[in-house]
Write a structure and sequence with these properties.
Layout (H helix, E strand, L loop, with lengths): L1 E3 L5 E3 L4 E5 L17 E7 L6 H8 L9 E7 L6 H9 L5 E5 L5 H11 L4 E4 L4 E2 L4 H12 L3 E3 L2 E5 L4 H9 L3 H4 L3 H4 L4 E2 L7 E3 L2 H5 L10 H11 L1
Parallel strand pairs: 1-9, 4-5, 4-7, 5-6
Antiparallel strand pairs: 1-11, 2-3, 2-8, 3-10, 7-12
Length: about 230
Amino acid sequence: MYFLTAMDPISSQPGDQQTLARGLPSPSANPDPASHLAVSVVMPMRNEEEYISESLGSLLQQTYPGDQYEILVVDGRSTDRSPEIVRQLQRSYPQVRLLDNAAAIVPTGMNLGIRAATGEIIIRADAHTIYPREYIQNSVMYLNKTGADNVGGPWITLPRSDQFGAKLVAAVLTNRFGVGNSSFRIGTEEGYVDTVPFGAFRKELFQRVGFFNESLVRNQDNELNARIRSA
């Protein structure tokens, strides 16, 4: 099962467009103590020196208790300063861990991170994305509230610049003409859907359905979600 939620903005910069996913609604002032389960954020990374500092910074300023989550950055043999930037952050934030991904592709990075994770909940993160402060806490809350196997929210894609190409890509990715019935691209209502971006999962799920398919350089999230639906 997957659950599409209404979300606060999450921003990322893939190519010539800026992607915003609506974050989860703000938690109550007195969150359910049961929601405070140990969380592992797994972030595959390769050559993200332009974004990694700000991306990790947003994950290190969460409302979720800092001693209840870790961030595993899985580096795909970056050739820029990305690993150095992560190591600098580690000096002040011991919950950040840096792992090596010799295969240098996302599914392998995710699997390395999941296997090394100590948390009961896995949150998939991208290294060029900025996360709202309530993102971890609300991901956990919605896993508990819905009983879904994977929760996440829709993307809103905005142009990164005023260039025609950037605006065209953004328009295509936020219109049914370009993405069909892809709920996470155009959806605005909560409910069960086929797939979500930036998923949050219970770690035990991967023992039931298997890990990310390492033969897929692209679309590994869609393939995993198809197996979850069939389980």
